[in-house]
Amino acid sequence: MGFARIKKGDKVRVISGKLLNKEAIVLKVFPKKNTAILEEINKVKKHTKPSQANENKGGIISIDAEINLSKLALVDPKAKRGISKVAYQLNSNGKKVRISKQSKNEIVTGGKK
Q1: Which end of the chain is more exposed for a tag (fewer CB within 10 A), N or C?
Q2: What is the pTM of this model?
Q3: Which residues contact 13 (CB under 8 A, 6 or more apart)?
Q4: 93-100: Cβ within 8 A, 24+ apart
Q5: Cα separation of 100 and 91, whole Å?
Q6: Cβ(107)–Cβ(100) under 8 Å?
Q7: What count of Cα atoms within 13 Å lies in the side-chain half-sphere of residue 72?
Q8: CA distance 79 to 26
Q9: Which tens digit of pLDDT belongs to each residue from 7-66?
């Protein structure tokens, strides 16, 4: 049961497994399962049966599969290696924000502050 430091909209890099060094945007995070779905990474084929509810003909479809959060690292363009660990700190407004431990900059998710 985890506490996810990676959020929806973050840019991450895969640090282990067959997808090593691929970068993508996080589409969805499942903190209880400790997994995330990335954009256009870890695609799998799924066989579907025809059904009236879905109005599909059946066949093989391609979907994004979940990947464990332990295999992902947050990308920080200002860090030396490009990846960074996450810490939490209060900003000037008294709001709790995520910061990069290497560059000491606030982590901006999805282009908003």
Answers
A1: N
A2: 0.79
A3: 21, 22, 23, 72, 73, 75, 82, 83
A4: 98/5, 98/7, 100/74, 100/76
A5: 13
A6: yes
A7: 26
A8: 20
A9: 999 999 999 999 999 999 999 999 999 999 999 999 999 998 888 876 778 888 899 999
